[in-house]
Amino acid sequence: MLTLLYGQFQRMLFSQVLCLTNYDRQWTEDVVQETLIRAWQNSEHLVREPGMLRGWLCTVARRIVIDGWRSRQARPQEVELLRPDIAESPDDTEQTLSVMVITEVVRQLSDEHRSAIYETYVMGRTVKEAAVVLGVPEGTVKSRLYKAMHTIRRALQDRS
Questions:
Q1: CA dihedral 10, 16, 22, 25 (to 10 degrees)
Q2: Does residue 160 sit in helix, strand or coil?
Q3: pTM for this prediction
Q4: Measured distance CA(71)–CA(44) in Å, rounded
Q5: How many CB atoms lie within 10 A of CB 28?
Q6: Cβ contact 65:28 at 8 Å
Q7: d(CA 39, CA 120)
Q8: Residue-wise over 116-143: b if at least 16 C-beta within 10 A, else e?
Q9: How far is residue 97 CA from its own chain's centroid?
Q10: How far is the C-alpha of 137 from the C-alpha of 126, rounded, in Å?
Q11: Is the Cα dihedral 114, 118, 121, 122 positive or negative?
Q12: Sign of the C-alpha dihedral computed for residues 153, 156, 158 and 160 taken in this order
């Protein structure tokens, strides 16, 4: 009887339950399976007319879904981890130390070097645009950037 029920009502039941479960395919499959098991357990009491049987199956499936929704609301919400490394909180210590070192080194730079970094890295200007803003040749901006970046890299290397 279970094979007959499955063959005759599985597709119809699956499509109706899928809507009730917000298109959760795994939960839908579980509900359909549980519905058919309950039909098999109550087989001697069921009316064999297809229309009545269809209505009974839909009612049982809907009640199983309602029970599922209620039990999900009664306990804390489950969170599915797709990747285990997401659960770990990131260690920002290295980045924080680097920012502290860079900040300190930039403070110690001359005004000319600091302004070259500000115009290019902070303001996003090209070397040519920074040269116009600073009123110096492009080559001067390039050499100031090179010296400033070299000083920052050396400070970061010394820290490690």
A1: 10
A2: coil
A3: 0.46
A4: 30
A5: 22
A6: no
A7: 73
A8: bbebbeeeebeeeebbeebebeeebbee
A9: 28
A10: 13
A11: positive
A12: negative
Q: Which amino acid is at 144?
A: R
Q: What is the dihedral of CA 38, 41, 46, 51, to 10 degrees?
A: 30
- Tens digit of pLDDT per residue, the chain (160 long)? 667 777 888 899 999 999 999 999 999 999 999 998 898 888 888 777 777 888 899 999 999 999 998 887 777 766 676 666 655 666 777 788 788 888 888 888 999 999 999 999 889 999 999 999 999 999 999 999 999 999 888 888 887 6
Whether 58 and 13 have beta carbons less than 8 Å apart is answered as yes
For 116, the token pair is: 């070259």
Kindly state the tokens that stand for 102: 């860079």
Residue of 61, 5, 70 lying closest to 30 (CA atoms): 61
Instruction: Work out the angle between the directed axes of helices 138-159 and 93-108 (0-180°, nearest 10).
Output: 130
- Cα 39 from Cα 60, distance rounded (Å): 9
Question: Looking at the chain, how many residues does it have?
Answer: 160
- Token pair recorded at residue 154: 């050396």
- Residue 123, both tokens: 């303001």
